[in-house]
Write a structure and sequence with these properties.
- The structure is a single chain.
- This protein has five helices and four strands.
- It is of the alpha+beta class and about 160 residues long.
- The N and C termini lie close together (about 5 Å).
- It has helices at about 15-20, 50-55, 55-65, 80-90, 105-115; strands at about 5-10, 95-100, 130-135, 140-145.
- Strands 2-1-3-4 form a four-stranded mixed beta sheet, covered by helices on one side.
Length: about 160
Amino acid sequence: MHPTTVRVRLVTPPLDEAARRHRFPYGDPRPGHEGLRGQGHGAWAGRAMDEVAGQDPEGLRRWMTDTSYAPPGGGESVEALIARVGAHLGTLAPGTHRAVVGQGVVRAAVVWALELPAAAFWRFDVRPESVTTLTGRYGRWNLLVGQPEEQPEQS
């Protein structure tokens, strides 16, 4: 790895009970990587998606189709999440960084790093217990894909 390269290993944890029940997560802090905390879901945090769909179907529809829409009660839009995650990645010092993050943060990081439209956020499936690696230097980022199974990452 070149001495000015930033490598970010985004590790998704195993599914917890809330995720299995399709509950909107709380934007848990990430010490050392505060900009990589999960998306703020406002009044929806901790509630099951089916419950939100029953009580606020239009809000849920907008959230899933309009990347500028923020959930009520101080929630964060997908666009705001992408911008926050990107701003954090842009400030990282050269070297390797590891952060345990939610699936939404991985999606946001990939969208920002590859300069994709915000709507691409919804087109990525991120597996639990997986690692997504981004490398960057001089404002250009790359996504590492196709790593062989059960082999250590190569520089």
